[in-house]
Amino acid sequence: MAREKLEVIKEADLTNNCPECFNQDLKLTFYQKHLYGKLFHRTTGEITNKVTCNKCGSNIYPVKWTDDIERIFEYYQKMVEPEKASIRFTRLFYIIILLSIVLIAAAVYLYLQGLIQF
User: Fold this and answer.
1) Nearest to residue 91, comparing CAs of 38, 42, 44, 43?
2) 23-59 burial, b for 16+ CB within 10 Å, e for fewer?
3) pTM for this predicted structure
4) pLDDT tens, position by position, 19-71
């Protein structure tokens, strides 16, 4: 089973007012989803975001965003450059592939020599 991890790709401090406590200390964070398995490491194209208040600690959901927060969000969203969606295989994957090729080659060699029969 692959393990999911959201990795931070961009953070920005905002000076907009928090809709909860009216403090001017917000943080906008963009995340990219990564999947880690035993045989592969996959970077997806899925981008998520979160706006939090540093003073009251509450998450500010898009329903409560003001027009200013929306404008700033759209600006930073254009600046975000995520990693390209890709898949990378681990050493274990390559070892399994190499061992299977060696075993198949050995079986074919022994069959051609007449030492084993299928």
Assistant:
1) 38
2) eebbebbbbbbbbeeeeeebbeeeeeeebbbeeeeee
3) 0.78
4) 888 888 899 999 999 999 999 999 999 999 999 998 888 898 989 888 888 99
